[in-house]
């Protein structure tokens, strides 16, 4: 059965705004984060895209974003959590890995994960989500790094070409017979949204 | 109907360990936090205390703690979230200690955080929802340091001052007689053998 999968990155959080490393740690959505999530809802509505099921990670920022996008019931998955950055969690993004070549070892030295570990657990969870029922149109709200890792696992060349970083970007996939086809990475609904003063 | 409540603060998290203000932000339990949570479970098992229902906040650190205490299904409550400290979240706890630890009167609204009055209101309302929504007689609630402190000040001001212990996995035993809440004890003995 052919299915559609939409993976959305959560909206801007306090730690995104403060340039803090945010993996397994978490912070609330900012006003801009809620606007981005609202714009994502409108993007889907305008195109008549509806969902048969909705999923998010156990980190609250994805749940907050999901609730802004849809009123559907949803399931939370530990395995859809962001890349674990270990002791670097909450520290300045200046301390994030600077060289792509170091990524396999960088976070491990702080007690965090490797990209392979993240790709393994996320791929396994998403394959289960795709196969466990007859839902044809599926929404997953998760994270910046892990949604790129997943794309890199199933569509490596397109993932790099289409790479975008904004909060609430949408990865649109077609899925059939265990194969994920990355159609596009969408940011048109959020790229002009601007920061306001959060009172 | 009389009820018995056990209110537990979550186990140590990475941000507790790093002395960062947590509030509505969140971080994973440390190894010590997991050991503290398991010690709470052991405390209850040693005394044959079982629960009719279990509750936690929507922040993952309370859910993680709860799962180490009990295998019971549980319900997550937005109203049990920690005190919101606004833009102070993620910063050093020195910034709170500089207010003399006065979580009840300091204005966090200047940082976009919550007013203590509001936290007490939502906590009290959520607690009342929890005790009235069903017939559960013995209830486990895993919540947070500052919001439990605020809740106890609201529901039993006579005993709150002496009872409040600002440590991870403290257990507050509270009786409910159908009308009033009374703090019976604050328990920390189970934490004595937990290693750093």
CATH class (first level) name of chain A: Alpha Beta
Q: Largest interface, with Cβ-Cβ < 8 Å?
A: A-B, 19 and 18 residues
Strand order of the largest sheet of chain A: 3-2-4-1-5-6
Q: DSSP helix count of chain A?
A: 7
User: N-to-C SSE series of chain A?
Assistant: EHHEHEHHEHHEE
Class of chain B, according to the CATH hierarchy? Alpha Beta
CATH architecture of chain A: 3-Layer(aba) Sandwich
Described by strand count, sense and barrel closure, the largest sheet of chain A is: 6 strands, mixed
Shape of chain A: globular
**Strand line-up of the largest beta sheet of chain B:** 3-2-4-1-5-6
Query: From the helix content, strand content and strand pairing of chain A, which structural class follows?
Result: alpha/beta
Low-confidence stretches of chain A: none
Terminal CA distance of chain A reads: 48 Å
The total domain count of chain A is: 1
CATH topology (level 3) name of chain A: Rossmann fold
Quote the distance from N terminus to C terminus of chain B. Answer: 41 Å
Low-confidence segments of chain B, given as residue ranges, are none
What Rg of chain A do the Cα atoms give?
16 Å
Average pLDDT for all residues of chain A: 96
CATH homologous superfamily of chain B, by name? Answer: Phosphoglycerate mutase-like
Characteristic terms for this protein:
heterodimer, A: alpha/beta, Rossmann fold, six-stranded mixed sheet, 7 helices, globular, B: 196 residues, alpha/beta, 6 strands
Structural notes for this entry:
- The complex is a heterodimer of chains A (199) and B (196).
- Chain A has 199 residues and is an alpha/beta fold.
- Chain A has one domain: Rossmann fold (3-Layer(aba) Sandwich).
- Chain A is 35% helix and 19% strand.
- Chain A contains seven helices and six strands.
- A six-stranded mixed sheet of chain A has the order 3-2-4-1-5-6, sandwiched between helices.
- In chain A, α6 crosses α7 (156-162).
- Chain A is globular and about 45 Å long.
- Chain B has 196 residues and is of the alpha/beta class.
- Chain B has a single domain (3-191), classed as Rossmann fold (3-Layer(aba) Sandwich).
- Helices cover 35% and strands 18% of the residues of chain B.
- Chain B is built from seven helices and six strands.
- In chain B, β5 (171-176) and β6 (181-187) form a beta hairpin.
- In chain B, α2 (31-46) crosses α3 and α6 packs antiparallel against α7.
- The termini of chain B are far apart.
- Chains A and B meet through loops of A and loops of B.
């Amino acid at each position: 059965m052919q299915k559609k999968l939409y993976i959305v990155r959560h909206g801007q959080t306090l730690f995104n705004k403060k340039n803090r490393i945010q993996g397994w740690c978490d912070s609330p959505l900012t006003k801009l984060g809620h606007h981005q999530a609202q714009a994502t809802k409108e993007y889907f509505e305008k195109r008549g895209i509806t969902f048969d099921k909705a999923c998010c990670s156990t980190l609250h920022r994805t749940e907050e974003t999901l609730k802004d996008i849809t009123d559907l019931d949803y399931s939370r998955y530990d395995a859809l959590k962001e890349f674990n950055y270990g002791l670097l969690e909450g520290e300045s993004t200046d301390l994030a890995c600077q060289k792509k070549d170091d990524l396999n070892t960088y976070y491990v030295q702080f007690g965090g994960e490797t990209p392979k570990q993240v790709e393994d657990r996320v791929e396994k969870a998403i394959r289960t989500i795709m196969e466990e029922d007859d839902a044809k149109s599926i929404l997953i709200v998760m994270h910046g790094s892990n949604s790129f890792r997943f794309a890199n696992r199933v569509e490596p060349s397109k993932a790099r070409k289409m790479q975008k970083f904004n909060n609430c970007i949408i990865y649109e996939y077609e899925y059939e017979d265990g194969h994920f086809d990355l159609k596009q990475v969408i940011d048109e609904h959020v790229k002009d949204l601007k920061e306001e003063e959060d009172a | 109907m009389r009820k018995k409540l056990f209110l537990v603060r979550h186990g140590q998290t990475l941000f507790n360990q790093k002395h960062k203000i947590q509030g509505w932000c969140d971080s994973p339990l440390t190894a010590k936090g997991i050991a503290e949570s398991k010690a709470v479970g052991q405390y209850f098992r040693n005394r044959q205390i079982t629960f009719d229902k279990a509750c936690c906040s929507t922040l993952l650190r309370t859910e993680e703690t709860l799962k180490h205490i009990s295998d019971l299904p549980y319900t997550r409550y937005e109203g049990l979230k920690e005190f919101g400290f606004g833009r102070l979240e993620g910063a050093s706890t020195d910034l709170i200690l500089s207010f003399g630890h006065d979580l009840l009167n300091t204005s966090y609204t200047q940082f976009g955080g919550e007013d203590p009055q509001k936290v007490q209101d939502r906590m009290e309302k959520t607690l009342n929802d929890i005790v009235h929504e069903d017939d559960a007689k013995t209830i486990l609630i895993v919540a947070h340091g500052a919001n439990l402190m605020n809740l106890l000040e609201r529901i039993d001001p006579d005993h709150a001052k002496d009872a409040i212990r600002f440590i991870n996995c403290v257990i507050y035993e509270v009786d409910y007689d159908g009308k009033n809440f009374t703090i019976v004890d604050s328990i920390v003995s189970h934490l004595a053998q937990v290693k750093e």
